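Researcher: Here's the sequence for the chain we discussed earlier.
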Amino acid sequence: MQLFNYLSSHYLMLYKNSMKTSFFFFALITMYSSFSFAQNYNSELLKSYSKVEIQSMDVESVKALEYGVENAIYFIAIPTGKKADFPVFENPKLIAKYTDLGLKITNENQYFQMKESNQLMVVKSMYVLKNELINKLKN
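Model: Thanks. This is the structure I predict for it:
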């Protein structure tokens, strides 16, 4: 009986230690993966955001910003007879990405008039980019 008590108490101690060890490794892996995700973002974002800004964002926002690098900008014609009172950009042919302009994605769409053109450049909002990304992932 003493042998049984001795073995069961050691087994229980080993079991508790292995649970602590397992929990420690699980927590360590979780922290490492979330830290490594914070480091894994499109370097193109550094043209508009600092590393600190990117790392402070939630995963969904960073993914939306990355999606927006190629999908945030589109052009629309200014309706005839309407006066556009928006900031003006010089070279619309060179504009491919919002990060090339040093712009940040905001909570509202941003509008810019193209110099010597009857077009507006639209930079999509965070809300629009997140919804587009969700719909893209569904399909």
